[in-house]
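All the exercises in this workshop are built on plain-text protein records. A learned vocabulary of local backbone shapes supplies the integers on the structure line. Once this layout is familiar, the rest of the handout is easier to follow. An example says more than a description, so a record of this kind follows:
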Amino acid sequence: MRSIGEMARDSGLGVSALRFYDRAGVLVPAWVDPASGYRWYAPEQVDEARLLVRLRRAGMPLADIRLVMAGWSGTDKSLVRRLLEAHLRRLELGLAEARSEFSALRALLDHRENPMSPSPRTGTVRLSLPASALAAALDAVRFAAGEDPELPMLGGVLFDVEGDALHVVATDRYRMAVARMDAGGRTDAGGRTDSTGRTDAGGHEDSRARVVVPAPLVDAMRALLTDDEPARLAVEGERVTLEAGERQASGQCLAHDFPDYRRLVQLPPGRRVAVDVPAFRMALETGAVRAAEEREPGRSAREVSVLATVEDGTVIVCGDGDEDGSGCGNGGRVGVDRGFLLDALAAAGRDRIVLEFGADPTAPLAIRRTDDEGTFSLLMPVRLDD
């Protein structure tokens, strides 16, 4: 007999998925200890669980999975074959419909990217920034920059200058980090502090610039910010330069548009819980984790921590060993990539932060500072089968 943990290890199904399929009547343990409630599985159930893994990966609906599992060990396999063929036809039809919709979307994109349209004016923007504040802002977002070669526009940090404010933003789709800071002053083309506005190449005032700075250049900029002297940032067309004292880091911006992050951070208010970071980090590092149930090609398996809020207003890390779920609180639970969450806590740079849980478990988890509403990060949740 195998315990639920051993069954998870041998089959590839997570503990949470095994519990889910037990409650759904799809893969019921051979024996449940009446005293402890622990589930135990017979050796032949390992093959059934591995079959279930394949059906899940193929995206088969639960109702069909139930019938396939029931008919798999029988002598008449006609029902199983028909169910598999029917699901394959659904997938093929769905793919054909998706291709049609994507073709229409590409046509819309081509229309929006009309090459006859005049390109927007690219001016010159220069501003002075407190070096320590810029260093803190870069530290708060750098961890979220993407590394996917298929999405080069996410492989850097957005510098969004508007008025006297600078937003730096990074995202890799699964997480996003935003930091806001105010400029210490604006400089004119001669390097003098100027209170009248920024200047474009023609000498006209310009108050907005949006450029994506490649991650290696961001790291070079951060290395310059070692003291409290003002740093001078200049955006000139597709080139960005940062000067700190006598040192300089300069390079070309990425030739891609960054997604409109303002749309992505407009979330409905959720439940906010203050968290002691050292204690919470220890709970994450020592607490139970699950293997992510879904995985994208090319990405290694992720370790998922399941968070829940309890009646006293605290956040706990659920343990997979809680067969009855008593250790997971009475409120809604959310699964997050443990490594991503630890990175976000480190980037926040505070001993106390606020976790904001959305009303729906599919909403991002927000990690906010208690003293700075303009600097925060968002983590997309990981789906929990149960």
